[in-house]
Every structure is written in C-alpha cells, then in structure tokens.
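Bug #77: duplicate submission created two jobs. Keeping one. Sequence:
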Amino acid sequence: MQSPQYKLLNFDQIDQWDRIVESHHRGSILQTTAMIRAQLASRHHFPYAIGAVNADGRLLAILNATRIVTMSGLGSQIASRSIMYAEPLYEDSQVGLQAAEQLVAAHDRYMSKRTLFAEVRPIFGRGPQMDPLLLGGYEKLGYVNYELPLCPCEDTLFRQLGQKRRNNVRSAARKGVLVSHATGPAAIPEMYSLLCASYSRSKLPIVDQSLFCSVAEQLDASRFRIYTANFEGRPVATCCFLTFKDRVICWYAGTLRIPGVAAMSSVFWHSMRTYAAEGYKIFDFAGGGWEGQEYGPGKFKSKFGGIETHHGRYRKVYAPWKLRVASAVYDRVRDLIAPKSKTVSSGT
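Kept job's structure:
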C-alpha cells in the first residue's frame, strides 16, 4: 500500500516548529528556528529545514540540515556536504515515520545535486526499527560520545570526574588559572582566535566567525555562553556552550598548548559546576571520535568520568567517485584551507 503524500513546507511557513522541538523528547537547540536563522546569516552555511504537514495541518515531522561549503568558487562543487546536527524529529507512529521518510527523500533529492554526501549526527540513540534514515538508504557508522550526569552538589560532581582531571583542575588553580564567562557578539573575536589556534595545529578547516556572531545575536545569554581560562593575564583556552531543556552541549573549543597548564580542564570543570547549580542534568561532550580510531580530543573527554554512548553517525554518499577525488584534493590543500593561528590579545 502506497503511503500518503504529505505537504512539505519550509520552516518559516510552520508556526508550530519551535513548539514541536520544545515538546519532543528528542528535540534539540540545534533544531530551533533561532539556530536555523543563525545559519542563514552565516557565511558558507545554507540551511535546508522542512516539515511534513497532513491534510488537517498537523505537523508530523521536521528535518533540519545545513549545506556547508568549505571552499568557494570552482572548488565548491567538490567541497560541499550536508550535515544534520541532530536527527529528524517525527511523531512516534507509523504516520510520523512515513512523513519523516518523505522528508529524508526530499532532502536527498535536493542535496544530491549540490553536495558530495550527507551526514547525520544524532544526539539520542535509536534502535533499527522506526528509523527513517536506515529506511532511506543511509549507512550507520560507529561513533562515540560522552555524557556526564550533572548534580547540584559540587563535591559529589567533582568526585565523578576521573582522577587525572581532578588533579588537572587542582594544579591549574594552584598556578593561577582563572575562568570567566561571557555572552554576546563582543566576546566572539577572542574565542575565535583560540579556536583558530587549535584548528590550525590539527590542519582542519573551521567554520566562519560569522556563525558564532549570528548565534550570539539570535540566542539569549541562558542559551549561549562562552567560558574562557586566563593564565598570566591572557586567554589560553575557551569553549562555547549551548543549552536547551536539561542538556548542555559543548559546541566548539580551542586552546593554546602551554606545558604543565591544564587550562581546558579548568574550563570544563567551571562550566560543569555552574550549569549543575543552575539545574541542568546532562553535560554533552558533543563527540568522542570514530570507533577504533585514535582521537586526541575524545581521549581527553573520556577522562571526565562521563558515560560512553554509541549513537553513531549516519552517512549517505551521493557520488562516490567525486568523494574520492575530493578526498585526494583535500589531502593536498588542507594546509591552505586550515585557519592561520592568530595572536591572542592579553586579557584586561
């Protein structure tokens, strides 16, 4: 029996969009209209956010993806990918599943002409049943994350951390590392310079600074916050966080390498205890690496005592031969497209 066809609408045509994200048990800040508008206002980011509505006007499913272009000009054809930073949301019913399948199919028709592949980064786990991505031909790959349960008792929370991280925090405090927080667009340049330092060392491209500026303008101080560690009068490590419902997401982080100074451990601990005191329940480290592969940031995150999760990532390659060419080109030019490390100004 052929499934019914639902009306597919752009996110700005759906008044119920944010209500669905707020009420759905898998809803994330990364799916809100504020984040979609922030992506729209950012360079090299092109959101594709659609919902499926039935004949009665009921919203059954939503999907939010972003086409990201790493290189402009002629190279953009082999340097574009579609990323869903959270899985599609849909009503937990056969009707909802059918609607989600149609959204995934519409996304693939659109993105297959504009990108090399699509990747989905789920925040929550799901079994193979009722999975519109697997039904839509996506491959599920092994990917690790860490989630730390937060509690308001600071002593209990500190004991949850791994011993090495507790020692890091104590050592940094003795050496005079101080952590402060900031909000709003004015705090972005300092944060971005530290992100560039990390991405430059790793020879990885980084999103444009305009994304963070747009997010800071779209979200209020309770949803977007930056924590920065200062050592000897200058910023040395930073992380920006997104919050929604009971979850804190470590969105982007960057640090200078200073022997013997565990500044990032201080940033994480200070943010953990602050968010725990405010009533948040889950500290989401937002990625620990592919299963079976060495990944430095993932190893660092694993020592905080969080729960290791295996929600994986989904991928569909639209043009395998083009992806092989793009991978070869990327290996040759990654030094050129990685950000240049910037001098971080002294704190005031």
